[in-house]
Amino acid sequence: MAVTLSVRRLLILLLALVAAGCSGGPGPALREARRDLERAEHLLEKNRFKEARRVVSAVRSRHPRDWQVASSAFVFWLQAGRLDEASRVGREMVAQRDRLVEPHPLSHGEWSRIVTRVATAVMEDGDEAGSAELMELALQLDSSNPDAANGVAWLLAEQGRDLDRALTLAKRAVRLRPDAGYIVDTLGWVYFRQKRYEEAERWLIRAVRLSPGSAELRRHLAEAHLARGNLPSAYVEARKAVLLDPSEREGRALRARIQKLYNPPGPL
Which of the 8 DSSP states describes residue 99? Predict the structure, then answer.
């Protein structure tokens, strides 16, 4: 299947990635790379992946000390839907961060935000252990990075370990970004993992109010309602989760489990 992406949009996304805490505009190397990224884009549109990969790699090789160019390669593969390539390039960029000092050096906080995005791509590519390692690095670089604190808290909660630390980090993330539904959801989910269902329900209700279109958040709220014995609300939230994302297996399984306990006649 052909991949279509806009180099202009790519550059906008790159600047959004690095400008969320990274000073300065695009340097000369990034402006020069635009032509090569356009060429790689056209190759992808023709399904000539290997050639596109060589072009993007050559861009990196010509500017081995430029973090904007390294980031552009990472974002390019994200937008192309190639998580494997994005994860590979992102890991290389993180490993080489000490020598990526052009067009100007980045602070620890700026690197923390970039590492967090790479960790997210690695997780999406299916490497939970690698993502956890990167999230810990991002948190080490900047303990006030809400996404890094949230990411570590979430991974700990999912693994069911060190839940006290997960709670501390989740609370920190909510304090730093109280209006982000996915961050509030993590705090609620940590409470759920601790079997503190009343607190979990309270925070998960808030998360859904902040992000009502998230199937995952509604599924978490349904789990909390179910644990609290609130079957009608659990039923409603589970149905909404499946309607929002029919492909999510966890949501369908949860709805089926709840329907065995509570299945009123007629549409809601």
Answer: G
Integer Cα distance of 93 and 38 in angstroms? 21
Tokens, residue 161: 């370990």
- Structural domain boundaries in the chain: 1-142
Query: Length of the chain, please?
Result: 268
pLDDT in tens, 38-48: 888 889 889 99
Question: Helix, strand or coil for residue 100?
Answer: coil
Give the rounded distance of the alpha carbon of 164 from its chain centre. 23
DSSP output for 51-91:
HHHHHHHHHHHH-TTBHHHHHHHHHHHHHTT-HHHHHHHHH
Q: How far apart are CA 31 and CA 230, in angstroms?
A: 57
- From residue 49, give the alpha-carbon distance in Å to each of 38, 79, 157: 14, 14, 38
The CATH topology of domain 1-142 is 1.25.40
- CA gap 218, 241 in Å, rounded: 5
- What are the structure tokens assigned to 76, written together? 């390019």
List the one residue out of 167, 172, 78 whose CA is nearest residue 123: 78
What is the dihedral sign for C-alpha 169, 175, 180, 181? positive
pLDDT in tens, 109-163: 999 999 999 999 999 999 999 999 999 999 999 999 999 999 999 999 999 999 9
- pLDDT of the residue at 25: 63
